[in-house]
Specification:
The structure holds two protein chains of two kinds.
Chain A (H helix, E strand, L loop, with lengths): L5 H16 L5 H16 L3 H21 L2 H38 L17 H17 L8 H9 L12 H10 L5 H34 L7 H31 L17 H7 L2 H18 L5 H19 L3 H19 L1 H10 L2 H24 L3 H10 L4 H10 L1 H6 L4 H20 L5 H6 L3 H18 L14
Helix pairs in contact in A: 1-2, 2-6, 3-4, 3-5, 3-6, 4-5, 6-7, 8-9, 8-19, 8-21, 9-15, 11-12, 12-13, 13-15, 15-16
Chain B lengths: L1 H23 L3 E2 L5 H11 L4 E6 L1 H6 L2 H8 L2 E4 L8 H8 L8 E5 L2 H4 L10 H7 L1 H10 L7 H21 L8 E2 L2 H4 L15 H4 L13 H16 L3 E4 L4 E2 H6 L1 H14 L12 E2 L13 H17 L12
Parallel strand pairs in B: 1-5, 2-3, 2-4, 4-6, 7-8
The chains are: A mainly alpha, B alpha/beta.
Chain lengths: 487, 323
Amino acid sequence: MLFNSWKFMVFFPAAAALYYIAPARFRWTALLAASFFFYMVFNPYQILFILAMAAANYGAGILIENAEGKTRRAYLIAAIVLDCAFLFVFKYYNFFFGSVSSVASLFDVALSFAALAIIVPVGISYITFQLLSYSIEVYRGNQKAERHPGIFALSVLFFTKVLSGPIERPGDLLPQLHAAPRADSRDIVEGLKIMAWGFFKKVVVADRLAIVVNQVFGDVRDYSGFSLFIAVIFFSFQLYYDFSGYTDIAVGSARVLGYRLTQNFDRPFFAHSLTDFWRRWHVSLSTWIRDYLYTPIVLNRRYWGKAGIVFALVVAFTLCGLWHGASWNFVLFGFFNGVGLSLEMLVQKARNRLNKKMPAFLESFLNISITFLYFTFTLIFFRAATAADSWYVITHLFSNFGQSVAAFFLDKSVVLKLGLSQFEFKLVLFLVVVVQILEFMQRRGTLWEIIAAKPPWFRWGSYYLMLLGLALFGVYSSKAQFIYFQF
Amino acid sequence: MKNIVLKACSLVIAVLLTVILLFAAPGTYEHPLATIVNKVNLIRSTSPPRIIFVGGSEVLVGINSEMIHRRFGRAVVNMAVYGGFGISDMLHLIEPHVGKGDIIVIIPEYGVLKGDFDSDDFSNKWIFLQSPKYAFEKIYCLNGKLEFLVGDISDLLQCKIEGMWGELWKGKNPFIDGAAAYARRSNRFGDLMKNWEFVPAEKLAGRGRLLRPDPIKPVIIRTLNDFYFAAAKRDAAVYLSFSGFPVGEYELNRAVIESMADQLRKSLRFPVLGSPADTIFPYEYFSNTIYHLRFEGRDRRTAILAGSMEKVKIQPSGANGRR
């Protein structure tokens, strides 16, 4: 049951009604039942694996809390190994042994392995990271082991965030689940607004950008120059609106129920550096990587000096790339982000000197552009079907660039070949610009705070336009799922 | 809380009213299948007795209605549209407009008779636009496609906004109902007036796939006969004719085509005009597909069709050659 499906449009109001009708002390039961149903719609049997993982971590948490010294550490390691083993078997087994066998074949060694034909449980990457975070926090003493099995199961399966996060920290979510928030009309209204904006970003903007991206990346060798360049840029925006749209729906639906989830995005395309970018992009994942991968590696390699930081960045981000999917393309995506962050750290002083010499506007413009373009470059690996396709895109991005730009503006068939009519192309550009302007305005507060300060006609006019835009310009025929759903 | 619910409901109602208003108001659509709007308007505005041609793009580009009009002295309506509509849906859209003395000539492409081309997710929305009740019941509800309806309405409105915006931009009236390019590309009878570019024969040869040897599906025969009975009640006559086909493709599928023609002659309750062999032409007469005749082929085919119509005593006025 995807958020952008009619099933969810029926399910969510029913779940919210059930939640608010239930007596306060049974609300968690109502929410857990709704979450079970939500998850089981995808595949009724996969929930057993998730429950097994949850049960193991629930038990591990209590054992870790009650143990001391080496035993405590052993329980933590056992929990980590178990979680990673689950993830490995479901997501990485075929990729790992396939890669090993490919490498072996280079040395004329024939290795055969039985590929697993299993369906990856929905949301397993997010669930694993959340459970790892729980065990580690209990071990570190920052979190008390959860004794209520129902609440613990709910923290894992909570339907608003089980598909694609945000990856909630136990300290943020568990206390809220215990508190069982009371109905608050402000929360409901705020939540619905956030959800509507999320749907707008997904259905109106991201899914229309997806038409071009899917068309071009479906057969990259059919395109070169400016057409490829547009598809690559469009993918950056598509990914952002798709995932931030999803997150808004997740955060908004949780808010309707009175819960507050982590905001995953903070205007990332206005970041002044790659470091700044990763503080604003997929925040719940990047902070997880920082806290549980990067920082421990840096501390472990502190005697290496800057080389230790570079090592930590490259390793942490390569693993971050691998987290996205079992493919070398994702590994390269993460690797190049790690390399970019390392370079940025190494030339920090020179950059500061250069920035001081430039006018503030130019400095901002250059830094934002370079950051955006570098991240967009790494996304080529993220989107292309194979490493060979990525290489083709990179090597043909600027071939006959001048000619292809001219052809783009003079020959209508070039835009049509991208899958959109002239009108749709202009519309999508307009929408991207409008949404980015709205993002820029949010440096002074959230969109809703800004709108709330305006007169009623402006407020209601904005809501009306947003809903009308959703009704008139949404792409409903593609039935596109969320990009991060696959992870 | 009650206040919030009231405000939210008002907002949703305002949006819905806007959508309904935009849907109901006349406007230009930027889509070739929107031609169906023009065609229905054309049949509505032309008084019987008429000669009405029904088919896919083969009829849209392959009939010279002017020639038929001159020969029979009757109003002619070419109701054909680009492929995408199934024969049953197309006949449903025409049926309410059939009048006394009308002569309807149905010319299905061979693939249509085989059931290969039917209304699909792409064309359903246009049927909904013309006949919402029929589409809702027969397409969306019956085929379990109700979840697509909202998306299809949104698609229709997007085509309309795009078409109206385009017309406004050109300084034209955006409230003319139908396809944006219809007036520019069609004649007064509804023929698409485009002489397709010449395509060397070797590029066309073999582009048509082999027709399956199985007989025409009973549901198609039933649909055609049902339409005939409905037309007969309105004192109109129905005929079936064969589509133009390149000689090479005909030879390749000869046995199947002849057996289809036999089946049609035996099963249909109304006359079949001529035989498939009458309308086979050299590849040079065709353009981008084996169904699209160029002007030269179109005129020759129209003359042959007119001859077949005369043979069954279709008269310039009044008496129809009904069986």
